Amino acid sequence: MASYVFTRMCVGADTLLYVLQRDIGNSKERTLDHYSIGVLARNIIESALMFHYLSEDGVSEVDWQLRRGVLNLHDATLKVRFWKSLGSEEHYEGWRTTMEEVRESLKGHPAFKAIDANRQKRLLSGQEMYVKGMRSTLKLVGFDKGYFDGMYAYLSSQVHISPSSFYWTDKRLSFSKPAGYQYYFASFAVSHARMFLLRSAIRLAESDDVVRQKIEPAMHESMHELATIPFGG
């Protein structure tokens, strides 16, 4: 599953490159789409967290079963909501049965029983993907939680169309020539997406000798350097 997530991350990065390759001279109606750049960057960051979660070393088979069960419950819960909204009784009932079966299986899992009661309730809701929460994976990526919270909230403003994403648009958006804020936000988003993507690529390369041998020493060194360079404004 980790390889699937890494592939998704690369597809997102390729789309991000496409969005950045714009030519203002062609039309005054085109501008730098910093909104979508923020959305894509956050998606890459979330993919990196999931990739590290799924490829973590030293996880026992019992704990892997729990992680898989939590992911399966989230998937089934989403399918139940989806088919119910479309009015498909057959698919809805089928996935509802699956959801209940997975939920009951989780309740009987030994590792699940050792979890705090409040956390158990959250996991059984089917709304959670990580046993200990998404931020528990930051240590695997080597990213500070305090800094992450601010950065993640800032990028999330574009995903959720929060006030921060559209306040002062008259000063922050320009079509004939992108405004300074557009360049600032785009560079902020891309630099953090780069850090998370490269840390994932390093993780993949250093866990697979075949992949590692395909990367030249100079490139490997550069990957490490670019994965730690913070945003400079």
Q: Helix segment count?
A: 13
Q: Give a count of the beta strands, DSSP E runs of length 2 or more.
A: 0
What are the secondary-structure elements, in order, as H or E? HHHHHHHHHHHHH
Task: Compute the CA-based radius of gyration.
Answer: 21 Å
Largest sheet: none
Strand content: under 5%
Low-confidence stretches: none
Beginning-to-end CA distance, first to last residue: 35 Å
Write the layout of secondary structure elements.
Blueprint: H1 2-20, H2 34-54, H3 61-86, H4 89-107, H5 110-113, H6 117-124, H7 138-141, H8 145-160, H9 163-166, H10 169-172, H11 180-206, H12 209-213, H13 217-226
Helix pairs in contact: 1-2, 1-11, 2-8, 2-11, 3-4, 11-13
Provide a descriptive summary of the structure in words.
The protein has 233 residues and is mainly α. Helix content is 72%, strand content 0%. It is built from 13 helices and no strands. The two termini are 35 Å apart. The mean pLDDT is 88.
Task: Describe what is shown at a glance.
The protein has 233 residues and is mainly α. It has helices at residues 2-20, 34-54, 61-86, 89-107, 110-113, 117-124, 138-141, 145-160, 163-166, 169-172, 180-206, 209-213, 217-226.
Question: What structural keywords apply?
Answer:
single chain; 233 residues; mainly alpha; 13 helices
